[in-house]
Design brief:
The complex is a heterodimer. Chain A is an alpha+beta fold. Helices cover about 20% and strands about 15% of the residues of chain A. Chain A is built from nine helices and eleven strands. In chain A, helix 3 (about 80-100) runs parallel beside helix 8 (about 385-400). Classes of the chains: A alpha+beta, B mainly alpha.
């Protein structure tokens, strides 16, 4: 009984201070800042952003940061606002690392090369028809199931989708804004979406046979719960116990992208976007009224989510970026002559932030000029915070000038303020993840609401359980057997028996 | 409200609710209920919320220190104020009870008549006050219509003890979870 009371007392002491403890530990272990693990960056450029009274170094580097660094914030200054600066700086570090040339070159002017995350496996690589096993990997990913309609459009063999370099790819999802309707750009084209996972997440799905329904059922029946690995930096806790794998660990990372067709006839300027020549696939209508189709088109990146599990943030850190010309902010006026998803001079446009009226026929595009009211007319509902705005401006001007990436901005980073349980130290057995806060598995995220105008287009706002919150929404994600899928909806895509 | 008032309010709220102060008023707080609740209680109690805070502060300052139970007994009108030998004003006790209910239920139950609000009038203070009500957290459930628990949670025993959910090792009900399945724990 005495031992029990002592244990409970320890729990209470840790609970009582765990928000502060959590972030002090982060700083303590991040002895070399956010790029503590990974490739040395002799040629890296960096800029120091002053935010809420603390200096944050943002680096244009190739190493994916494993953890945010809050060590520059004095303990008495720790607050939601000051920590938000650390998470936003981390998001920019992550964005720069994931968008550098996959061949190793840093983001610099004069080129727009394929990126690191574009070499990752997309969902259609993993969840194959009939639940077939994806090929095991040797650092690259297996061939995907390319629709027959697209096959003839490849320049050469199918393996081209494996190459790191300019390549056609397949974009087939067009209802991403939460199944609530398509996102149709100002030129009348349907936007497309794709989700990719890094090697760590891919390996976990493969190793545990979570790529088909039967494998998921077997996994759950054996008493397992999905727990993708967490990113961490090598170090020890106060008792000398390791808190990460030797040399650090890259945990699970997901990237979700929104693309628009670059229509130069409608004055789209490709030099303002990260572009890819893609095979854009449209499934056949279920009622048989139209066949499947595939077109080769130049598409530009307009929205970009990154979610990374870290050892202290079991719910994941959710960074979201957008093209700066996507949409004006509600109540602030439309001060640009042209937006990707907003027509500033239009009396007959669709209602703001309402899905276009049905029917939705992505094989009938671009929409004719007469159908001006059938396009999405989008405004940002929650303005980008002024601290984030200032950070964006500095990174764009000092690290990204002359590159297409200077046209992208961080909207915000959502992070759990109370992520873990007492006595939640990460171990190898937990994939170096701290135990989640069982009382509130969401970890009480900040900001409470976060939306990307291209990915959560029609659910922006501040209404609990209705408006977009990355963590609160993904908390409901399950596998095909109804078991928790660790904050990803990807596993719902498993097919097969 | 001054920082001093807020600190006093947070400490008094911890005493009234039985929750650890760091849990109900964390330093890293994206919601801000303590500030909202203090403002609300002040605006709906005439000067009695300020008087209650002053009473609580004076009880905290007594040397040797009173226990939380002793302070609570005075605030709730069970015991006399040791500094005066008299019970505190009943309006102060009514405000304390209203604050307690506010934390647990997210609603303000008007403790006595004031201009514009009759005694007993119930007001849900905000969506987050409703969602974050301590009644739900205490029993590891959720406010109707809003859940941060994962799908299928109802099929599993509660994950944490009441000591963990409240951050208070002195709570006597609940005890550690019975990990063997449903049923009372030792």
């Amino acid at each position: 009984m005495r031992l029990l009371k002592l244990a409970l007392l320890c729990c209470v002491l840790i609970v009582g201070a765990y928000a502060i403890y959590h972030y002090q530990i982060k700083g303590k272990n991040s002895t070399e800042g956010p790029l503590a693990s990974g490739t040395p960056q002799a040629s890296a450029m960096s800029t120091t952003v002053s935010c809420q009274g603390a200096d944050h170094v943002i680096t244009n580097g190739a190493a994916i940061p494993h953890l945010p660094d809050a060590s520059m914030i004095a303990s008495e200054d720790i607050s939601v606002e000051s920590l938000q600066c650390s998470f936003d700086a981390y998001s920019w570090d992550l964005f720069l690392a994931l968008n550098h040339d996959a061949d190793g070159a840093l983001v610099t002017g004069g080129s727009d090369d394929p990126t690191v995350w574009e070499s990752w496996a997309e969902s259609s690589y993993i969840f194959l028809p009939d639940g077939a096993t994806p090929a095991s990997t040797d650092g690259s990913f297996p061939p995907r199931n390319v629709p027959a309609e697209c096959a003839g459009l490849h320049d050469g063999a199918m393996k081209i989708v494996l190459q790191i370099g300019k390549r056609p790819d397949v974009l087939e999802e067009f209802t991403e804004p939460f199944q609530s309707g398509p996102l149709i750009d100002a030129n009348g084209h349907y936007s497309r979406f794709a989700i990719s996972v890094n090697q760590s997440m891919y390996d976990y799905i493969l190793d545990n046979e979570l790529y088909n329904k039967a494998g998921q059922k077997t996994f759950s029946q054996a008493g397992n719960e999905v727990n993708f690995s967490c990113s961490c930096n090598e170090g020890t806790d106060a008792d000398g116990n390791p808190i990460c794998a030797q040399g650090g660990q890259q945990g699970a990372v997901m990237a979700k992208a929104a693309w628009k067709v670059i229509d130069t006839a409608k004055n789209d300027d490709p030099s303002l976007f990260h572009t890819v020549e893609a095979l854009v696939f449209t499934e056949a209508a279920k009622d048989g009224s139209r066949p499947a189709m595939c077109e080769k088109q130049l598409v530009g990146l307009t929205g970009f989510h990154i979610a990374q599990k870290t050892s202290n943030d079991t719910q994941g850190l959710w960074s979201t970026f957008e093209h700066a010309d996507n949409a004006p902010t509600k109540g602030q006026g439309a001060d640009k002559p042209k937006y990707n998803y907003f027509n500033p001079d239009c009396a007959d446009c669709n209602a703001v932030n309402e899905p276009p009226a049905q029917p939705w026929n992505p094989d009938d595009q671009p929409l004719s000029d007469a159908r001006i009211g059938d396009r999405s007319q989008i405004e940002r509902v929650i303005a980008i915070h002024q601290d984030t705005d200032a950070m964006n401006a500095q990174v764009q001007s000092e690290l990204l000038a002359g590159t297409v990436w200077a046209n992208y901005e961080l909207v915000s980073t959502q992070w759990p303020t109370a992520p873990t349980a007492p006595n939640a130290a990460p171990t190898a057995a937990t994939n170096w993840c701290s135990a989640i806060n069982e009382v509130d598995k969401s970890g009480n995220p900040a900001p409470a609401f976060l939306a990307n105008t291209t990915l959560e287009t029609y659910i922006q706002g501040t209404v609990p359980q209705a408006s977009s919150s990355c963590i609160n929404c993904h908390l409901n994600a399950t596998m095909t057997d109804g078991q928790f899928s660790d904050f990803t909806y990807l596993l719902e895509r498993a097919r097969g028996p | 409200m001054s920082n001093s008032d807020q600190k006093t309010f947070n400490a008094m709220s911890a005493l009234l609710t039985g929750f650890n102060e760091q849990l109900i008023a964390p330093q890293v707080d994206p919601i801000g209920l303590p500030k909202l609740f203090l403002q609300w209680a002040t605006d709906h109690s005439g000067g009695d919320c300020a008087n209650l805070l002053a009473t609580f502060a004076s009880l905290q300052a007594i040397v040797p220190a009173l226990s939380t139970d002793e302070i609570g007994s005075v605030i709730m009108g069970v015991s006399p104020d040791p500094t005066t030998g008299e019970p505190i004003d009943e309006n102060q006790t009514a405000v304390a009870q209203a604050i307690l209910k506010l934390w647990y239920l997210g609603s303000w139950y008007q403790p006595f008549d004031i201009a514009g609000a009759a005694k007993g009038k119930e007001t849900v203070v905000s969506d987050q006050a409703y969602i974050k009500g301590l009644a739900s957290q205490s029993m590891q459930s959720h406010a109707m219509g809003n859940s941060t628990l994962t799908f299928g949670y109802w099929d599993k025993p509660p994950a944490a003890s009441l000591q963990v959910t409240t951050g208070n090792d002195e709570v006597s009900a609940g005890g550690p979870p019975d990990t063997s399945g449903w049923g009372a724990s030792a």
